[in-house]
Write a structure and sequence with these properties.
about 20% strand; alpha/beta; about 40% helix; about 290 residues; 9 strands
Length: about 290
């Protein structure tokens, strides 16, 4: 993977990831796809790749105390304090682009991934990541991967009105992010589906919902999460380039800050953004 993470790993980003986890779980309506969960044994082995804060692994561990849940991430910076983890959760550091230790191979009943699109430079990166994660799966076990089509993000309104400058900047910001990140944000579900096929996974399925399907919750939380993501990427870009070009518009960092505040104000007045959310599942041949 060309770049592991484009956002900070500070307290603000950890809080944003909490909202993101809640948005995806509630919008999809499940942690593990029902057709996958129906096949799992009482002592299932679950791996959450790119676990971040470990929220997804923790949530499963609480619901299923007999499951064995492992979260892996390239950094431990956002791992919670060990004493707060469920007894059936282990978090460990591992780069997903590298082979896994032999004691993890062919052990998992489910491997789960969520939102790695910015780390995937091209189709080859998708193929390599899926192939590597499949080495963790038992024969007949499942890979579940969730991604968003952020290149299809649109603005919408809870009442009559027209987009303000803040919302327009948010959409332009994601478009520019797509431009500067190559093809990372474009055609994500198609690239992921092709990677599943290339790895030989079977019984493929794509579950797609809109980020605003839960009405007020999805609209407010989804918009807040994406504003936070754009803010984080802008901050990272400024740190990398000094006081170079801002992400959202032409101008200096102070212009970005004014637009971020305008986005938040317009969100409070009823403007929100909506984008497709996808869950792709596939099964390793028995």
């Amino acid at each position: 993977m060309a770049q592991a993470y484009l956002l900070n790993r500070d307290a603000k980003e950890t809080e944003r990831l909490g909202g993101q986890h809640e948005l995806w779980t509630k919008s999809l309506g499940y942690l593990i796809h029902p057709r996958v969960e129906a096949t799992l044994a009482k002592e299932a082995v679950i791996v959450d790749a790119a676990t971040g804060t470990g929220a997804w692994a923790q949530a499963n561990a609480k619901l299923h105390p007999t499951w064995h849940c492992t979260g892996v991430d390239i950094s431990s910076a956002q791992f919670p304090i060990a004493s707060t983890l469920c007894p059936n959760v282990i978090l460990q550091v591992h780069d997903l682009s590298q082979p896994f230790d032999t004691d993890m191979l062919n052990q998992a009943d489910v491997v789960h991934v969520r939102l790695l699109l910015l780390a995937m430079e091209d189709q080859g990166a998708w193929n390599n990541a899926v192939a590597n994660l499949c080495t963790l799966l038992k024969p007949g076990a499942w890979l579940q991967w969730e991604e968003g089509s952020f290149d299809e993000m649109k603005s919408a309104f809870r009442h009559a009105g027209t987009p303000g400058k803040g919302t327009g900047a948010l959409l332009r910001g994601f478009k520019r992010l797509a431009d500067i990140s190559g093809e990372r944000l474009r055609h994500v579900p198609q690239k992921l589906f092709r990677a599943f096929e290339a790895a030989g996974l079977q019984d493929l399925d794509v579950d797609t919902v809109a980020s605003d399907r839960l009405s007020e919750f999805g609209r407010e939380v989804g918009t807040r999460v994406e504003i936070g993501a754009l803010e984080g990427v802008m901050k990272q870009q400024r740190e990398a380039m000094g006081q170079g070009q801002p992400l959202a518009i032409e101008g200096g960092p102070e212009d970005d800050e004014r637009l971020l505040e305008a986005m938040r104000m317009e969100m409070n007045d009823g403007t929100y953004v909506v984008f497709p959310m996808h869950c792709i599942t596939g099964r390793k041949p028995s």
